[in-house]
Amino acid sequence: QVQLVESGGGLVQPGGSLRLSCAASGSIHSSYGMGWYRQAPMKQRELVAVVTNSGRTNYADSVKGRFTISRDSAKNTVYLQMNTLKPEDTAVYYCNSYFGPKNYWGRGTQVIVSS
Q1: What are the pLDDT digits (tens) for 32-52?
Q2: Number of neighbouring beta carbons within 10 Å of residue 104
Q3: CB under 8 Å to 97, separation ≥6 — which residues?
């Protein structure tokens, strides 16, 4: 089993920045890919960004150039640096870890972008 705990969410004004963190524990190793998803009210959960075990990254078109995903394998932690935030980025952000058929989720952290 893998446990994921997100932190760093909150209320921020449009144009501001936040950095989310996700600490993984349990039976995780560097072969796991890790990523961030988000779910806005009345919408389906969507991929935000992912980083593979080899360090390759992929982003949703809506966040390219504004968000950066990174991982510290020594700390089993993945980060999401979010800049130039927009009201449409408001959502619950979930950390995800995957390895083959195994897929784990955190409980989420709320991000609200509002003036």
Answers
A1: 899 999 999 999 999 999 999
A2: 19
A3: 2, 4, 24, 28, 32, 33, 34, 35, 103, 104
pLDDT tens column, 54-99:
989 999 999 999 999 999 988 999 999 999 999 999 999 999 999 8
Select from 8, 14, 40 the least CA-distant residue to 114: 14
Distance separating alpha carbons of residues 2 and 15, to the nearest angstrom: 34
Looking at the DSSP bridge assignments, the partners of residue 97 are: 34, 104
Order of strands, sheet of 77-82, starting from the edge strand that comes earlier in the sequence: 2-7, 18-26, 77-82, 67-72
The residue with tokens 């593979």 is 52
Strand spans (E) along 10-100 = 10-12, 18-26, 33-39, 46-51, 57-59, 67-72, 77-82, 91-99
Host H or E run for residue 25: strand 18-26
**In sequence order, what are the residues at sequence separation of 6 or more whose Cβ sits closer than 8 angstroms to the Cβ of residue 38?**
45, 46, 48, 89, 91, 92, 93, 94, 111
